[in-house]
Known about the structure:
With 168 residues, the protein is of the alpha/beta class. The chain is built from six helices and six strands. A hairpin with a 2-residue loop joins strand 3 and strand 4 (88-89). Helix 2 (27-40) runs parallel beside helix 3.
Amino acid sequence: xxxxxxxxxxxxxxxxxxxxxxxxxxxxxxxxxxxxxxxxxxxxxxxxxxxxxxxxxxxxxxxxxxxxxxxxxxxxxxxxxxxxxxxxxxxxxxxxxxxxxxxxxxxxxxxxxxxxxxxxxxxxxxxxxxxxxxxxxxxxxxxxxxxxxxxxxxxxxxxxxxxxxxxx
Length: 168
């Protein structure tokens, strides 16, 4: 959500919604800090941190995830793995086979789910939320596919074949 004025900013503040961070991964330490604050205040709430599959390869993300696992912050990391970090295929931007398998390295559970199955995603997030509420930060990897361009500047025909898109 974007802040378009004072009224929108006040609504977002009242609902604990942070503005977007453009540099990938930079919102994760901030979100983990917010989650830690929620836990310290004994609120019945968790922080949900949404990101793409390229984020876990950044230093900011890894620092934030490690901190969340160290302090048991009530944070749910939700990764939409659409197969590409902008134009870089998943298997060339990380040595890991999945994003979910990175969770245990940071002291959190990792759940992998078919992101195209809305009921499976609901079940995975519900399970993750219970883990988080019990003091176990959790990483959910939702595997999907980006059918369109990443941005209006992007030309996916430069880095993927039409057959791949057709298969999906």
